[in-house]
Design brief:
Largest sheet: 6 strands, antiparallel
Order of helices and strands: EEEEEEEEHEEEEEHEEEHHHHHHH
Helix content: 10-25%
Distance between the termini: 20 Å
Radius of gyration: 25 Å
Structural class: alpha+beta
Number of strands: 16
Length: 344
Amino acid sequence: MLVTTPFALTIPHCADVSSEHWNIHLKKRTQQGKWEEVMSVEDESTSCYCLLDPFACHVLLDSFGTYALTGEPITDCAVKQLKVAVFGCMSCNSLDYNLRVYCVDNTPCAFQEVVSDERHQGGQLLEEPKLLHFKGNTFSLQISVLDIPPFLWRIKPFTACQEVPFSRVWSSNRQPLHCAFSLERYTPTTTQLSCKICIRQLKGHEQILQVQTSILESERETITFFAQEDSTFPAQTGPKAFKIPYSIRQRICATFDTPNAKGKDWQMLAQKNSINRNLSYFATQSSPSAVILNLWEARHQQDGDLDSLACALEEIGRTHTKLSNITESQLEEADLNYGRQNGL
């Protein structure tokens, strides 16, 4: 199914992007279930546009379908970001206590899957997750429990240090990677647990998680990371998604779609919004400025920062309207008119 105006698809990724270390491609699944390549993110194309940001790839498309972003490391210096987190039981009715350490791709969906599984198991986050830079150098990952309080706790044999093969960490198409550690307290009166979790790649980086918790639910401090994590890539669509007010959008398009002798047109609008390559794609559109604004909206769904757009326009010198000065009632009226004109 074709659409009249290209729409933006945002795909989170965990690669520490660098053109000299990664080949990143966009693929589409055919009706036969096979994956065919659409383009490399570095390609020049008039049928599709890819803009790679540090944590997501924004794609402009003119047809619906199932798409995937794939990354192929070129060198051993290619890095992917892992999110490491430690969970424990909500309550403990015996002398045993289990810690579960997860290492997953740094994407919202990957960690949300862990959160969902742990909630079903009655688990609770014990420390705010951290990022680990994992290199494509084929070296394994080691996870260790350190600094267990002597005479209060002990760790069961053969579990203090666990090693995970490189291939299992690098491949993200499996179940969330985790290691379980079995601890035992000497007496029921011991309710506090403090230790360190060390996650390190051989000949690579390491990260330390500091655990300071109580095994009694009534004494445990709640980690409020989940609410923050949910807002990383808001999945809002339709009228709830962030949009540039329609009247402002109309003025920008009318101004910048018109060729200008001084070069103050849609190409400069693209440049001021850090769109510096594959401009031939926009040149084929009936309104290049509208497509550029679609891409800008996709990149700013989290912050809705109209000031940054206003600054770009003011630098060009074509408009001096401070978008942040528009009143809330004007925004609501503009959005209402936009909804009426687009059948929302």
